[in-house]
Structures are given as C-alpha cells and as structure tokens.
Amino acid sequence: MAEPSKKYKILIVDDIPKNIQILGNILSKEHYQIAYSQSGEQALSITRHQMFDLILLDIMMPDMDGFEVCKALKKDPKTADIPVIFLTAKADMDSIVKGFAAGGQDYITKPFNTSELLARTETHILLHEQKIALAEMNEKLEERVRKRTKQLEEAYKRLNQLEKAKTDFLDIISHELRTPLNGITGLTTLLNLTQLSDEQQEYIQYLEEVAKRLTKFSETALLITDMKTNQSQPDFLPTRIEYVVEPTLKQFEKTYEGKYQSVGFEMDDDDLLVAVNTTLVKKSLEMLLDNACKFGGPKVNIRISISSNKNNIILAFEDDGPGFSKVSQKRLFELFSAGDVIHEEGSGLSLAAIKLIMDYHNGKIEVQNKKEGGALIRLIFSR
Asked: 135: which residues sit within 8 A by CB, 6+ positions away?
C-alpha cells in the first residue's frame, strides 16, 4: 500500500472538464494531490516545472492527442520515468498496442470503475517509487564499488611497488655481492699457496666456505630476479631425464666429498623424455643437494629416483636429515621466510626458486616430511 502520510501528486490530462471532475473527486478522497490540464501542450508545460508520481492521460484530444503527449514526456529525461496511464473510451487492441508503443504503462477505459481506477493508480505509484528506490540503491552500490575499486587499485599499485622493491633488492644484492666475492675467492686461493699455520689454514678454509655460500645466495637471488621479472625466457627441449641428473650428481660428489654419507640414484625406465630447460633443472637439484648436506651433515644419506605414470614424470629427492620444521611447513615457498624453507636457518630462497622453476615448466613441487624422518621433495613434470 502507498504511504498514507505521503502526498502523491497526480496530473490528470483530459479536454473534457467532467472527466477531470470525476477523476479528481475519486482520487482526492484517497488523499492524492491533484493537478489537471485540458490540453497536451498545457500538460507538457506543467511537467517542466512540477514533478508528478503519475499521469492520467486521455487519448482523444484536439490538436495533440495522448500518444503524442506521451512520446514527448518519454523523450524528456526529467519526465521519462513518470508512469502514464491512458484514459480511453476505446478498448480495441490497436489503440492499446499503440499506447504501449508510445511509452504508456497501462490504460483505463471510460466510464471509470472506481475500484479499478484506484487499484491501478496505487500499483503504478508503488512501482514508480520502487523503481526510484532501486535506482538510488544502485547508485549507492555503484559508488561503493567505485570506492572499493579505487582502494583495490591503490592496494594493487602498492603491492606492485613492494614486489618491484623486493625484486630490485634481490637484483642489487646479487650483483653487488659478486664483485667482492670474486675478490675474496681470489685472495683465499693465493693465500693457500703460501706458508700458513694450522690455525690460519682453518681460518682460510672457513672464509672459503662463507664465500661459496654467499656466491650461491647471489646466484639464487639473481635467478629469482630473472624469473620474477621474466628477463630470461628459457628454452625447453626434449631431454632424457637421466642426462640431467647424472652429471649433476658427479659434480656434487666431487665438490661435496666428505660432507655426506651416501647418495643414490635409480629410475624405473631408461628411456624417459621430458621437455625441460636442463640448466634450471640442474640448478634445482644442486640447491636440494646443497641443503641436504648443509642441514643433514656428513652422515646424511641422499636418494634420488625417477618414476613415471601416464601423465607425469616424477623426480623424487629424499634425505634422512632433520626434515621440515612446523614453522617452515607453513611458509615453504615464500621469499625471505622466517628461517630456511627446508630446515631451520639459511637464506630462505631455495624452495622459492625451485617453485618458480617448476612454474616455468608448468609443473608442480610437493614437499613433506617422511614418517621415518627426513625430507621428501617431488618435482612433477607433465609428459
């Protein structure tokens, strides 16, 4: 029902005064505010200065009929949304269709039925109010969406700035470290050629290890920077996977002699081809082997295996070291996480870099602790 306390305004347009009087008497009793016009031109003039909730418009008028008036109302943005009910003595279908085509919402036939008149009047006034309310609500929602979109755009901009800052930081670290590290490595090589005491030799050995660790950090940071910024576009070529693993293991055995207990390699098929970038996959294995030795110590046992199924080739890496801490398991692939992503300390870049490498290959990395102790990491490549 329409609100009793609100005075809804209705314009009656009819060239016959008696019809205006009848309609006015019926509607006034329901507390509607009534205005009237006896011509189409006069009605258009009134609506330019006064807004209405409903217009009752006679069709048959001299000079300008109701269809023309309705079309003029609908062309004006100020009056386009005012509902129009046609008043007609004609009940033929052609007039009804023509009225709807002109923009009318309904029609009432003469002589007027009071109940029908009031019901249709109230219905269209309520529909008009609801339409206005919906438009206002939509405007408020759109404003909220605009504000929220602006906030998200600003947040996205800040996020990009932070991401760029982090990438720039990695880039600076990787490049700025390499020059002094090369100098340190060269000096330690020269010092090893001189006569040194046992204590001095121990210091030089420690210095070499630190320099190597920083060099690996620099290389990993540079790799991440290249991949995060898409500076490198690696080639992917069909390769037998053992051709990637075996040379990496030989280099590892030579470099890390005495720093691990054992390393094994096995595969269930000697003829597995996978499209990879061999440099990136070797780098992944190097980082996994390095972490196993670093955190497992000289007694760590390492096992690498290759298996396959219908869809994937799986490169599995296992060790019997300390495994993953509960903290690191929650932040496995984050750059600069709290502690090393595999164990308890370190740069926190290794698994983040491997995750990026696997993303480049449209592959997956799965990481977990084994029940019997140690870490299990699977690199999964699509066939």
From this structure: none
DSSP per position, 217-267: HHHHHHHHHHHHTT------EEEETHHHHHHHHHHHHHHSTTS-SEEEEEE
Question: CA-CA distances (angstroms) from residue 178 to 173, 217, 353?
Answer: 8, 10, 19
Give Cα 41 distance to the centre of its chain. 56
CB 250 within 8 A of CB 289: no
* CATH code for residues 150-228: 1.10.287
CA 201 to each of CA 205, 240, 269: distance values in angstroms, whole numbers, following the listed order = 6, 43, 47
Output the six-digit token pair for 75: 């062309």
**Which residues, including other chains, have CB under 8 Å from residue 337's CB and lie 6 or more apart?**
328, 331, 348, 352
Give the number of other Cβ atoms within 10 Å of residue 82's Cβ.
Answer: 21
d(CA 284, CA 375) in angstroms, rounded, equals: 15
Separation of alpha carbons 214 and 196, rounded Å: 24
The three-class DSSP label of residue 57 is strand
pLDDT at 323 over 90: no
> Domain 9-112: what homologous superfamily?
Response regulator (3.40.50.2300)
Tell me the pLDDT tens digit for each residue of 117-154. 999 999 999 999 898 889 889 999 999 999 999 999 98
pLDDT digits (tens, 9 = 90+) for 171-206: 676 666 666 777 777 777 777 778 778 788 788 877
Amino acid at 319: D
Among 9, 76, 67, CA closest to 48: 76
Relative to beta strand 375-382, strand 237-240 is unpaired
| Half-sphere exposure at residue 237, Cβ-oriented, CA atoms within 13 angstroms | 8
Residue 177 CA to residue 170 CA, distance in Å, equals 11
Domain assignments of the chain as residue spans, ordered by start: 9-112, 150-228, 237-382
Closest CA to 302 of 264, 246, 256: 264
How far is CA 298 from each of CA 202, 244, 320, 346, rounded to the nearest angstrom? Answer: 18, 25, 11, 18
CATH fold of 237-382: Heat Shock Protein 90 (3.30.565)
Cα–Cα distance, 18 to 358 (Å, whole number): 86
